[in-house]
Design goal:
Radius of gyration: 18 Å
Distance between the termini: 42 Å
Number of strands: 0
């Protein structure tokens, strides 16, 4: 029987239901692993981040909420991205021998400021607002590449369009997101360079 995300989360919240956890895990584990892999460029590091996240989720499941339709996907990605940033700033990733772009900015005073004032969630919400202004095909192409880590070739086959069309649709969204980001924080801001690092982290700038 199909169980909604809200039903699954309620069972995990209230009863530490391991079966509900497994169903929820099976539904979202691949998405989160693809998300982390694309943003770190390192599969082993991504697996560490995802494993750490699921441990945290099991111990504090109330941190995950659902939208008005009872779906956890959007909030899960928001929260997971926070946890990924936290993980990459800790000694856990450094002593594993991983090098990452955030290591180069962790000591800058404005880093914590940008996290507090702009927030990853604000950025992801902004992307959602940008996307709704595009045709459905453009939205789906962007999500396939950005969220699901599909290649241009895979996306082309999925929607039956040329790779050139896929690239064009993706770049249209990317360009508008970058323009919105610049307008939001100002290119002269000391924090702009650091926020660009965060955009790299979440895969919006290559």
């Amino acid at each position: 029987m199909h169980r909604s995300d809200q039903d699954l989360l309620n069972a995990i919240y209230d009863n530490k239901d391991e079966i509900a956890f497994k169903v929820f895990y099976d539904k979202y584990a691949k998405l989160l692993l693809n998300w982390a892999t694309k943003r770190t460029g390192n599969r082993d590091l991504a697996e560490d981040i995802v494993q750490n996240f699921w441990v945290i989720f099991w111990s504090k499941p109330h941190t995950i909420k659902t939208d008005e339709f009872g779906v956890a996907r959007k909030y899960l990605i928001h929260y997971f991205t926070y946890r990924m940033l936290d993980y990459l700033r800790t000694s856990a990733s450094k002593f594993s021998g991983h090098e990452f772009v955030l290591d180069t900015i962790e000591n800058e005073d404005s880093y914590q400021h940008i996290i507090e004032d702009i927030q990853v969630k604000d950025m992801l919400d902004m992307i959602d607002r940008v996307l709704v202004n595009f045709p459905i095909l453009t939205q789906e192409i962007f999500k396939n590449i950005w969220e699901l880590n599909f290649s241009v070739k895979e996306t082309s086959k999925t929607y039956g369009v040329s790779e050139k069309i896929v690239r064009t649709h993706y770049k249209k969204v990317l360009s508008l997101v970058q323009d919105q980001t610049k307008a939001f924080i100002g290119t002269s801001s000391k924090s702009f360079k650091i926020f660009l690092e965060i955009l790299i982290l979440v895969g919006l700038i290559k």
